[in-house]
Amino acid sequence: MLNKLVMATNNQNKLFEVRQILSPLGIDVLSQKEAGVSVNPDENGSTFEENSKIKAMAVYSEVHMPVIADDSGICVDFLGGAPGIYSARYAPKGCECEKLLADLDGVEYEKRTAHFVCVITFVDTDGNPYSLRGECSGHIGFEKCGANGFGYDPIFMYGDSSFAEISSDEKNKVSHRAKALKSLYDLLNERYCD
Asked: Active-site residue numbers?
């Protein structure tokens, strides 16, 4: 029975989403800080999978208990998949949306296709890593819309609304992180909660 795991993050927005989705399993999700861990590994992988695993294994080596880590980002087709794994470092914190909008200035809507990617690595009690991936497709809008969400949510259009305009309940059904977490939920439910 698994009743506690550590998430390799101190990002409160990510923790909130993960706790919401995993709460029916009765698993307590701790942040790195709550687990007494302060590692900040060099994310030098070339894929979301590699970076997620680097983070998960770094925290696991400190706590020796189940860990999850995610690496996520937005991939814009017109920009050849950029910013991709560099999404968090694409622009100064808080300026990511403005930079992406500037890089797409003058590009018509049909060519502004994009998808969010989230890869979650789960490391079990014995240190075995499992990789779970989720994606969500949409477009990059022309301006920031909405007050919910974080990161690129205000410019990522899912249908007629940005991710920052839909409720967290709705987002938790369709987002890249929700899809990866659903796979994680199924894995944990099947192996640890029966």
From this structure: 71
